[in-house]
Fold:
Amino acid sequence: MEPSARHMPHPLDDLLRVDRIPHIWCPGCGIGTVFSSCLTSMKSSGIDLAKTVMVSGIGCSGRGAGYVNLDSYHTTHGRALPFATGMKLANPELNVVVFSGDGDLFAIGGNHFIHAARRNIELTVVCVNNFNYGMTGGQVAATTPFLAKTTTTSLGNPDSPFNLPLLAFAAGATYVARWTVLHARELMGSIQEALLKKGFSFIEVLAPCPVNYGRRNKLSLLDTMRLYQQKTIIKNGASPTELDIDFSRGVVLGKFIDIQRPTCIESYDRTCRPQEIAEGKAA
Amino acid sequence: MKLWRIPLDSQTVQTPKGIVHILEDRCKGCGYCIEFCPKKVLQFSNRFNKKGYHPPEAMNEGDCVNCHFCEIICPEFAIYSMEDTRA
Structure:
């Protein structure tokens, strides 16, 4: 859609495929905010955008790869991390950003996630957690809070949700943070740090899904945002074991883990290519 | 803005002024920019855009301090603020 003559284009239009905007995300959906924070951080971090790739899987947030005006890959369901891993190993110069949802990264792609974190591949993973499978009609997901209503759990979810930062930490991620879409400024700071971080970085973003999750739990879009405002506690460096999502107790946000350990490529070169390192050929 | 004391650097710090630009036809009317504007600059307009939503409009444009919060919270890339260089 052409911007009206009165206005200059939006500051992010150079990173967007403007012909595809407006995007398909519902009114009030948090993915758009996370996506725009991601683009702003990519711009402000000063990384070489010609060598930046965005990879996403399937689901609402999987559409992100289709809207960014960079090299991008919309992969098969749950396989965003394997594609990203291959890309990074084949061309270590690339900055690879994985932008995907909770269902894609932690349900069907859960195994890929733990192994990418274990190997410490240099990726930036932004996970939009909207607590349900939004695109398919709001079914219960691995991240749906206890007793929350979804299409398939009309009496309330009987299972406990994943504690994603704990999972990422336990699997070996070197940077772990959690924010909500309302904390967009802190989120941009975190994504920027994660982009410049050498190692596997994981950022969970809580996002409202007003049409599927919100409607069944009596949470309008502004109610969800007020919940994020009133029932969240910012506690940087909190222990990952206390990060369960329970809005009645309060949800802890912040940057939890920022450590250094050898990346996959470094360890591989040291173990399998000692000769090349000695001769200064390997990266 | 109410302050419980006058800041010591109030003489040296200039409050920035901003102008809000709205790309009306991209708006889906979620109202986040209106609800979370710290200076309450925006309100829903009575107009409809191409998609049938009410886009926001600036009612107290002079109050905008160019904090860019509407720009970063907008999921639709439909609003941004620029520094007012007219003054």
